[in-house]
Amino acid sequence: MAQTEKKGGLLRKSSASKKPLKEKVVLMYDEIFTTEDPSKCNPRFWEELFLMKVNLEYLEGKLEALDGEELMKIKDNINCLFQHCIQALGEEHPIRVVNALQTLCALIRGVHQKNKSTSGFDIINMLVGFDKAELCMKNLMESLDSLLCAEGSESLKSLCLKLLLCLVTVTDNISQNTILEYVMINSIFEAILQILSSPLSRREHGYDAVVLLALLVNYRKYESVNPYIVKLSIVDDEATLNGMGLVIAQALSEYNRQYKDKEEEHQTGFFSALTNMVGSMFIADADEKISVQTNEAILLALYEAVHLNRNFITVLAQSHPEMGLLTTPTSPIPTTPVTPLGTTPPSSDVISSAELPLDADVQTSNLLITFLKYSSIVMQDTKDEHRLHSGKLCLIILTCIAEDQYANAFLHDDNMNFRVNLHRMPMRHRKKAADKNLPCRPLVCAVLDLMVEFIVTHMMKEFPMDLYVRCIQIVHKLLCYQKKCRVRLHYTWRELWSALINLLKFLMSNETVLLAKHNIFTLALMVVNLFNMFITYGDTFLPTPSSYDELYYEIIRMHQNFDNLYSMVLRLSTNAGQWKEPASKVTHALVNIRAIINHFNPKIESYAAVNHISQLSEDQVLEVVRSNYDTLTLKLQDGLDQYERYSEQHKEAAFFKELVRSISINVRKNLAFNTLSQELLLKEFSTIS
């Protein structure tokens, strides 16, 4: 017999010249795309349709091929198909339910393609008709809710979530998706929580559930009362919150693992050998090639949880026993390739034994550590747009954490010490840190390390001013907590002071270039006020008196930078230009730093002259400092320990609107290509009882 080939819904014999034969389901679709009622000639038409394997490609293609006017002519049949799909969701036979869910996905996507054209008809009217929309959508949402909450097939639950993601992301801007009004009225929030609270459901569907929730929370969030925002903000069930944390932690861990693998592969490759031969000339270029797609979708979910729900803060420090297990899941779970913006779920929230070498501290890890490691990777390269967005969102999440009283309590807890191996950008002038020598410290030390690392590694022509401002604000908020609660943190403060002084030096060296794009005085003022915070209140939160002495030593040692900054801001504040006011603020803020320099420098010079020493050692300078504190006069500066709290709606609305748009496009793209295949589903339901 001649071999049969199948393509686009057509069956044809490769050796014959006869017209190709169409699949029965394709013939039935063709009947729907006429103006006649297909059930007139065949009363069992709809019943038979849902026994046929769906041909997604043909159905969507057929819808997209019609113009708006042609589609309006068959509107009654489209409405009828949509309504029969909803009816089929209540059937006992899973094959019918699967086919109905698949058909709904194709209908929604196909009709939406037409909605983008100039014909401009309403998508709801086209799918269900205005007169029946409320009842139909209510029935649809109730059926999906029942399927998600039932103890039945996991494949059906998976397909329900795919349909909901299809529904939510059918428009780029989800706030313009009027279908979501019905998802707001007929909430599936409890069904999502149920998935997250159950270990089995969470392992199978947690990723899709978390991404779906993050998107629903962002529907018209500034324009009306969004019930998903309200409900998420009051969730207090520990199992549910921990479940959500596990899903997020696993997705971020998967990213970290992939990056680590790529990094190791890169280091053992040809290019690594080449750079070893010629030195470190090309180390920055080499590192740029280590690239793993960022995961804004899961990061958005983490942000919404941290920002909206104070109870979720406890989850950040919660150890994940599932992540410490040495066993893999008993049943294999199908995985799909990672796609842009992390729209594909990781396989499980259990770390397998093969993954354990990723972190020496995996047994005592938690969501915050995983997030800090993720942040240290994505914040390395801000030239890439997705990484820039990811880096900004990481800093916004850290801002929310730094403002929270409870979060600060566990960040600074001496009894909660961790070894956090952050990724550091390869730089010519420093050696790669040995991971094994990392000390166990309170988690706030890792946050400060991350901020210092960012400050040191992003002084470049394409200066990420916004990220620097957020970075300095996070440090300031942590210092405010330490001052308020008199927490004496044993941290290498010198690294922070050195990074801040080098940042000021960079701003001055590139004054002309940077002023063309940015108000650098806002950032300079923030940096100077961090030093003022240490000078004014350092005796209440620095670990030892000698730490306070070292602060003065660094200011005196690097006095030339502060002198140059003063000269620059004085020059601009005495001119009548646009920078007069912001520059004058920096001038006033430098008063105590200048007082320290002007007080101690003559004393140091005098000590050197009397003792006939050309260059004083650090210990000798510190001796001069300690013996001359009593004659130093400083001005009390107000408001150093005050800050403006984070506000999303007033300052970040445009960023989140664009971010959610980007996530929506990529979730839809991923659904279109690799998550609606029926093969696995139909194997599960191969017989109809």
Percentage beta strand: under 5%
Strand order of the largest sheet: 1-2-3
CATH topology annotation of the largest domain: Leucine-rich Repeat Variant
| Distinct helical segment count | 35
Q: What structural class do helix, strand and pairing data support?
A: mainly alpha
Into how many domains do the coordinates divide? 3
Estimated radius of gyration: 31 Å
Question: Which descriptor suits the 3D outline?
Answer: elongated
Helical proportion, percent range = 55-70%
> If classified by CATH, what would the architecture of the largest domain be?
Alpha Horseshoe
Say how many strands there are: 5
Runs with pLDDT <50, length 5+? 1-7, 277-289, 321-363
**Rounded mean pLDDT score:** 84
The CATH class of the largest domain is Mainly Alpha
C-alpha termini separation: 33 Å
Main attributes of the structure:
689 residues, mainly alpha, Leucine-rich Repeat Variant, 3 domains, two-stranded antiparallel sheet, 35 helices, disordered N terminus
